[in-house]
Amino acid sequence: MMLNHHLSAGLVHSLRRRRWGAGAIVVVLLTLSVLPASSQTRRGVVVGINQYAPTESATGFALRKWKDLDGAVNDAESMAALLDQRFEFDEVTLLLEGEATREAILAALVELESVSNAGDVAVFYYAGHGSQVRNTGSSEADGLDETIVPSDVPDGAEDIRDKELRAYFNRILDKGALLTLIFDSCHSGSITRGLPGTATRFLEPSDRVIDDPSEPPRPVDRGALVFSSAQDNQLASEMLDDMDVPRGAFTWALNRALLEMDGDAPASEVFLKARALMKGRGMAQDPVLGGLADRRSSPLFGGVSESTGQSILVLGTEDGAVHLQAGLATGLRPGSQLQDASGNSFVVTVAAGPATSWAEPVGHSTLPSVGEALTVTKWVAAGNHPVRFHIPATTLTYNQLVELGEQVATQNPVEDPTEASPDHVVFHTASWQLLDSQGTVSDLGMAPDWNAVSDAGNVLHVEIPAFQVLKDQVTRDLATMGLDALLTDDRTAADYVLTGRFQGRSLRYAWVQREATAGSDASPAPPRTDFLAIPEDPATASTILARDVKRLHVIYGWLGLNSPPDNGAFPYSIRGFEHVDSGEVFAPSDTLRIGERYRIVLSASMQAIQEAQMQATINNVMQRYLYVFALDRDGNGSLLWPSQQEGSVENDINFFTFLPEQMPLPANGHLFTVAPPAGMDSFFLLSSEEPLPDPGILSFSGVRTRAEPEGPQSELSQLLFGLGEGTRGEPRAVPLNWSIERVGVFTAQNP
User: Fold this and answer.
1) Which of 137, 191, 354, 639 measures 20 to 30 Å from 581, CA to CA?
2) In CATH, what is the architecture of 311-379?
3) Which among 594, 588, 606 is positioned nearest to 685, based on CA atoms?
4) What three-state secondary structure class fits 682?
């Protein structure tokens, strides 16, 4: 494979002549599989731009309100590594930062078209700012063309408009190639989403005006598959992953879905998996999948051969360490373990980038040769994502904040941004700041004129900060619980912000999800905790706020748990939920009704069943144990299958018997009855080669008050029990002989 990386930052050698910048950013994705090449030729163009600051020569329309991004380059590098090592693309052109000019991007598309043939796979991926340009010749109601923003636009180059891109994409389709387009950028900034601090990939429209009445055919209507990061009225957000690396929320979720799922998974299933992962992290945006029915039901990158296992190639050795052709982007975290053909063990010590890592021998000094393949034996899960909390503080006293609250109350502000959407948000740093609907922040000073702010026609939400005594008390309580490391001084890195409001003549505070938006009940993570009345002496209330941190941490631990890479050993996934009385099967995207009884339905293709049976025969594995449990928004887990009283009894499937393509659990009767409140419930399907010694660990309280189960526990049991306990801690390496799937299901009252 040839990876053309046009950054002149040095080379990391590779058996495939892959070129990476010396400063490649560490990213976190979750697979170990390497797929053999198919008869198709696969090529891609991957673009990532963080830096948009104009040079001194920039003039005129180029002087927009430029803002740099943090995660676009990380996203592009991880996508390139994914295409290379997971899907074995033959060639990927990677354009980063200053090399991603308008001319270079369009030239790369011309080259992609020139070498594409019928049946080949072509991919274009873009991470960076999205914007708009006024088009007087447009037939669209808003008269705007959507754009992507190359790196040289601040210096006078033009945005690349969607209609321009259509022409290039259509020429690739004319060659008969299978075209997949992936955009992690914004095209609209009309709505303020969540609390201040969210980094988004939207840039205000260009001042340029064009007249272009052309209407090239939409590639999506001609067979292209298009993944977009957000709806037209939403912003594409950035986030920190569980290794504190900036990422685009959409690309993070899409990469993880692709890496955890079988390579032949339909694009529609990959999309639903990515959406579920985003919602699990509380992201407000909704990705969009466009494409004809046959492309949506086909693999994202065309036909993909079955996995050959978890083999990692050796690039070389140095000072007793082994340089590996796989990194964090392909699932090798520090602590992962590998073996050579002779059984010698190695442990990963350093992840040097998305595609390379270093390992050291364990208990021996034998080093493998260049080109030798090592097999992964243990894998480090990313399930203990430390949900982060921010406490904005001010020098204002409790009494001053009460007086402030009385002033603000006269303006009828939006008290709860998770129930009603403001278009402007006022928050406090060194002084009062106003965030408008375009994402622009203005300084209001230390003593804002609230009447003037409100008279501007703004629908306000005023975030009242914590007084110093409250911040200090909550910090002490979290330290007592061993959770003070979850606090961050950077509000842009936080998942939840301690937010105050004035109600009933008292200050009330709650942890509010930074991405929370009115109507965001489609997320399994709580948009906020209860608002608590906080007196001047906050000791008792602070204990409750600290307890809520623990509860949220448990929820995020389960929602963030990733499955080992799919190797075909377990064929089933959740198809839906069968209504016990009517027999109707509801897909996970449907709505289940409160008070109704359901059972879960698993499904697998005959090809997947046959592959699993073949692997079971080769590996002498007779059975797989199944567990189904549910998680509510308060972090409470409920074991549904098998019953907690019975333990691991009659909950296994035998690979050496007939396995149906559809399997209801249980075979007769109902598994659960939907209970209030309405919203998003999470259901988990856990499969394990070995039975859990105590399945009761899957029934738990959100604050985990019970003692650790007695008796010896498997490595998997220890991993599951530790989710949400304390901070990240040391990585826990576990075998790859298990899997977990989560689906989010919306519940509602009967109409």
Assistant:
1) 639
2) Beta Barrel (2.40)
3) 588
4) strand
